[in-house]
Amino acid sequence: MEWHGEAERTRQPPQGGGGTLRLAFAMLAVCAVSAVAVGVLLRRDGPAPVEMMRTEAPAAPASPANELVYRADSRGHFYLDAEVNGTPVHFLVDTGATVVALSPQDARAIGLGPGDLNFSVAMSTANGTARAAPLRLRSLRLGQLEVEDVPAVVMEQPMGVSLLGLSFLNRLEGYSIRDGRLTLDW
Predict the structure, then answer these.
(1) Domain check: are 90 and 173 in the same one?
(2) What is the pLDDT of residues 90-139, one digit of tens each?
(3) pLDDT tens, position by position, 13-36
(4) Which of 49, 84, 100, 172 has the fewest CB atoms within 10 Å of its CB?
(5) 30 vs 2: CA distance, rounded Å
(6) Is residue 3 part of a domain?
(7) In degrees rounded to 5, what are phi and psi of residue 125?
(8) Burial (CB count within 10 angstroms: exposed 0-12, middle 13-18, buried 19+), residue 167
């Protein structure tokens, strides 16, 4: 059927189809009355609809599926052994370090020599400003926890130990330090 002009859009429905139309209007009236009744029950000073319909206790917060716990040494530091690109590396956890910082020795152990690195970044350290070479670690693994594509730097000057900084820690579900224990959740 084609529509022609304004008159066609305002045509009356054919005679004999009024029963269906009356049923539709009756259902609409029932819905309107129900809506008014619900509105009265949920008046402005009453509880919110979600609170009225709740039939069970709220769910407990979901706990992370996995967790690693490390104890502090006698000075309160957290040392841990990890694998960087499959090579063992000893780290000091440093929540004040923006990125994972590898010592030159650990960089050589994972296959990065001075010729592979561009020491183009100035880093503020506890000992002043130092140069570093930015890179991305293919993977950093602690036991069954593995994080891929981790931003890191290799420090130009020797360091006693590599630092496990926020570029790794912030990729986890969470981490906390409490009562001499470091907990990593993922």
Answers:
(1) yes
(2) 999 999 999 999 999 999 999 998 889 999 999 998 889 999 999 999 99
(3) 445 555 554 554 444 444 444 444
(4) 49
(5) 35
(6) no
(7) -125, 175
(8) buried
Is 32 inside a domain boundary? Answer: yes
Residue 104: what residue type? P
Does one domain contain both 44 and 92? no
The neighbouring-strand residues paired with 140 are 84, 147
Q: Sheet holding 181-185: strands in order across?
A: 67-71, 181-185, 174-178
Residue 21 is part of which domain span?
16-59
H-run or E-run covering 89: strand 87-93
Number of domains in the chain: 2
The Cα 164–Cα 97 span in angstroms is 8
Residue 171 token pair: 């990729």
In this structure, is residue 8 part of a structural domain?
no
User: Do residues 79 and 122 both lie within one domain?
Assistant: yes
Note whether 76 and 26 are same-domain residues: no
Residue (of 105, 102, 162) closest to 132 by Cα position: 102
